[in-house]
Design goal:
The structure holds 2 protein chains of 2 kinds. Chain A is an alpha/beta fold. Chain A has 10 helices and 10 strands. In chain A, helix 3 (100-111) crosses helix 4 (116-129) and helix 3 packs parallel to helix 5. By secondary structure, chain B is an all-alpha fold. Chain B has one domain (55-251). Chain B is built from 9 helices and no strands. Classes of the chains: A alpha/beta, B mainly alpha. The A-B interface holds A 50, 53, 55, 79, 82-83, 85, 87, 89-96, 106-107, 110-111 and B 121, 123-126, 128-129, 131-135. The complex binds adenosine-5'-diphosphate and magnesium ion.
């Protein structure tokens, strides 16, 4: 039975020290879609992915993943759920002491009992899907940023997950790598019947492939809608973020006294 | 005044809590049924932690042995007892200098590297990514490094003593002309296996535990930024050096305090 919402975040609050990163966060992510979660740097996007992956627990509220409360699971159940999801970390997170091939083989070796030939073929197919079959013997340190991201992508989908989480997949990529990644994310989503969640602050790139956009701000969801609807929105905060205006509801200046008062040597 | 006491109390409490957490982490990492693959990971870490520390241990031991030979000879010659220099060199090394100096070098060479490596793995999300693959980073990353430290340091200490005694021989016998037979003979008579060699090894084992524990804990719990990693690396060297010197005094008092 397929559930409509693969992830359901209900009244979640999360604090770092005494600072609320999320306060009563509510949102749902529909199965089979590409959902982009957007917000400025430091708004808690990575934290949200950690919460979804069960690596952090919310202080209040509940996160339901595949219709189960992840905070209530024991270690074994949590690992079973994690085997159904892939994560592409912000930094790629390739294991630096393993080759490209071994990185992609890692989850397969851990979870499946495959023959050497089956394993080899599976890894090669995944690498082929991201166009890096020829790079299988390289070490992570020999890859460009875009290539590393693609290897990490191959590794994230190696277990054929139902859900994949992307943390800033476009950050720091050149335009060509960016386009390649966009196409891969979109193609993989339809080819493998995936649900994709990508957190990003690259508005144009994320909007171009997303079915749904969730805009985070001030620890909660500002708005959730389709990219087209957001482009047309009149909400000042949405407009500021979508159109990349430097100043607006979300201020460019950190709180400070007026400039005139702070400059030295002027006439009184 | 009350505030001061309260601050001190809460500071102390915080430290105790931290030590408790570190102990818990260590138990989680080490109490586990080993797999076949854990063994090859241990071998790999023994190479990185132990074998790669060998050069600095060998060179330092040789020089310290030579200095001991020279100082010992000058001191003893004043009383006409320079034939006892072998005994002095050996006892100083085995009881005290080998465990302490090797441990301090080990903390600087291997402990700091362990912290930095684990911290960098945390900062590049490799630890988080292991977790998402259902692999506990405490078992996969922390445990083999911890055990490698525990095994390596006592061996390095033994090597330190041997090379140091050879260095003393170089100076006292080959250079200053002490009779080789009395260098070795006095040493053999004076050094007691249980009382000296074994006690020195117990020190080495305690220091190995302190360094490895500090290093993996600092790496695993560091703030995953470049400043965070550098601060954690510094803490590893400072804390483990202080712990080595403090525990050396306690252990020496326990081992040799009553037997003058
Ligand atoms: N391990 C941590 N300890 C303390 N604060 C953290 C930690 N990780 C993140 N934060 C803080 O939480 C906030 C949200 O971080 P993050 O989720 O990484 O934001 P984003 O991914 O949107 O840039 C930031 O202000 C960050 O400083
Ligand atoms: Mg982030």
């Amino acid at each position: 039975m397929a559930i409509d919402d693969i992830i359901n975040i209900q009244n979640v609050s999360f604090y770092r020290d005494d600072r609320a990163i999320f306060k009563n966060l509510n949102c749902a992510i529909s199965t089979g879609k590409i959902t982009a979660i957007m917000g400025p740097s430091g708004s808690g996007k990575t934290t949200l992915l950690r919460l979804i992956g069960g690596q952090l627990n919310p202080h209040e509220g509940q996160i339901r993943l595949f219709d189960q409360d992840i905070a209530a699971l024991n270690r074994k159940q949590l690992n079973q759920i994690r085997a159904r999801m892939g994560v592409l970390f912000q930094s790629g997170a390739l294991f630096t002491d393993l080759s490209v091939f071994e990185n992609v083989a890692f989850p397969l070796r851990e979870h499946m009992h495959l023959s050497a030939d089956e394993l080899y073929n599976k890894v090669l197919l995944k690498l082929e899907a991201v166009g890096l079959r020829g790079a299988r013997d390289l070490m992570p340190s020999q890859l460009s940023g875009g290539m590393a991201r693609r290897v990490a992508l191959a590794r994230a989908v190696a277990m054929e997950p139902e859900l994949i989480l992307y943390d800033e997949p476009f950050a720091g990529q050149d335009p060509i790598a960016m386009a390649v990644l966009q196409r891969l994310i979109k193609d993989l989503n339809s080819a493998m019947n995936l649900t994709s969640v990508l957190v990003s602050h690259d508005i144009a790139e994320a909007c171009a492939i997303a079915d749904q956009v969730i805009l985070l701000g001030e620890g909660r969801v500002l708005v959730q809608d389709t990219p087209a609807a957001l482009q047309a929105s009149n909400d000042p905060a949405v407009k500021q973020f979508i159109h990349g205006e430097a100043d607006g509801v979300i201020p460019f200046h950190f709180a400070a006294p007026a400039l005139q008062q702070e400059l030295r040597g002027g006439s009184e | 005044m009350i505030n001061l006491i309260a601050d001190l109390g809460s500071g102390l409490l915080g430290k105790l809590v931290r030590i408790g957490q570190a102990l818990l982490m260590l138990l989680q990492a080490t109490i586990v049924r080993p797999k076949a693959s854990s063994f090859s990971r241990l071998i790999q870490q023994l190479y990185v932690v132990g074998v790669q520390s060998l050069i600095i241990i060998l060179v330092s031991a040789l020089f310290i042995g030579m200095v001991l030979g020279l100082q010992g000879y000058t001191l003893l010659a004043a009383y006409g007892t320079e034939q006892a220099v072998g005994q002095m060199v050996a006892l100083t090394l085995v009881r005290e200098l080998s465990p302490v100096v090797a441990a301090l070098l080990f903390a600087g060479r291997a402990g700091s590297a362990l912290t930095a490596e684990i911290g960098l793995m945390k900062a590049t999300e490799q630890l988080a990514s292991l977790e998402m693959f259902g692999v506990d980073p405490l078992h996969r990353i922390v445990a083999p490094r911890f055990w490698a430290g525990i095994i390596s340091l006592p061996l390095l200490v033994a090597i330190f003593s041997l090379v140091g005694i050879y260095g003393g021989h170089l100076v006292a016998v080959d250079w200053l002309g002490v009779y080789s037979g009395s260098y070795w003979g006095n040493m053999q008579q004076a050094v007691d296996f249980n009382g000296d060699v074994l006690n020195g090894m117990v020190k080495a084992l305690v220091f190995a535990f302190l360094i490895s524990w500090t290093a993996v804990y600092q790496g695993y719990t560091c703030v995953p930024t470049s400043q965070g990693i550098s601060a954690a690396t510094t803490r590893t060297v400072v804390y483990s050096s202080l712990a080595i010197l403090g525990f050396d005094f306690i252990l020496t008092a326990l081992m040799f305090g009553g037997t003058v």
